[in-house]
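Q: Predict the assembly, please.
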Amino acid sequence: MKDIFEIIISSLTNQNIALVYILGMCPLIAISTNVKNAKGMGIAVVFVVTLTGIINWPIYALLKATETTNLSLLVFIITIAATVQFLEMFLAKFLPKLYSSFGIYLPLITVNCVVLAVSLFFVNRDYNFVQTAAFSFGSSLGWMLAIVLLAGIRQKLSKYANLPRGLSGKAIAFILLGILSLAFIGFTGLSLF
Amino acid sequence: MKLIRVKYKKWFNILRDGISRSNPIVVAVLGICSALAVTNKVENAIAMGLGVTFVIMASSLTISLMRNIIPPRVRMVTYMVVISTYVISVQAVLQAFFMPIADALGAYVGLIITNCIVMGRQEAYAVKNPVKYSIIDGFASGMGYTFVLIVVAAIREILAFGTILNMPIMAVTWEKWVVMAMAPGGFFVLGLIIWGMRELIKYYENQEEPTS
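A: Predicted assembly structure:
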């Protein structure tokens, strides 16, 4: 139980998948212009990543049993694409309200590296099933934290700051990410128990 | 000479645009994940850049050959399968011949699949253009990407370790900037490079208005 809690906390802070492992940057930069969209995308990512992490673990176990782990990349990406497609249809049919709030972000998630990266990381780190579930939930929550923080700063910045023309927009987002990342690395060595 | 220039003009234009005016990283800001995560050493950057270039060219070739028989509704999944096939082969080659680099790149080789540049070129170019131009276009995008990767990696490696390609170039007394080898260094360097390149090619974004 203790290590599960530890996995969640560390993937939120000093092992944050967006700010320390630098994954999922394309949507992070593209959608972080205002907080509302960032939140929508973040919730969709938490949903999809947790789900695909849980689905991919037994599939990887099956691949390991049949000694075809070479194909894991191909299998993972197809699982992810299928899950996203299925989730979209499911939400449109049964939960139309939820669908209209984050349905537009769903197709974008297939190309979000966070989803695939979580699956590859649990393979590399030999997590068991419960640890995988905790890790996928924690790191997607960490990604959401990063995008909402960045969106908040960018929204304020675009109102009040007068930046050079070339720096405004995406370039300044990187500088901001760098500063955020420094702050998150500062959590290293944090001990709760 | 002039005749050759005219004959290959389209090729030259595609190549030049891929590197400067429609450089995938500087202008479109795509494929950043791997651009930052693997660029703490120049050798990793070169391996990653060449891997991505190969994957873009090979999958552009394949998609362009199949462009008339892919049903439009399932084209995304088709791209995914084609791209991941080539990525698996890149991974296998790295593991067979360049084990230290494969170790350093780790999971990021597999993440070439979700690199938006690869997918973007298939959707934007290869699926509606003939084979020879698609390959050149893939090569140009890949080279634009590799170029930025190597520049970022060179700056970070000099500041963080005082070396280039593991050859020491700074004085022994050089105080190493450890932060440059970590994530924040990558963010700062890439942000400044995007700024500089955009001033150079005169590409400016419109001042963005928050919509809510």
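The radius of gyration of chain A is 18 Å. Chain A touches chain B through 53 residues (CB under 8 Å).
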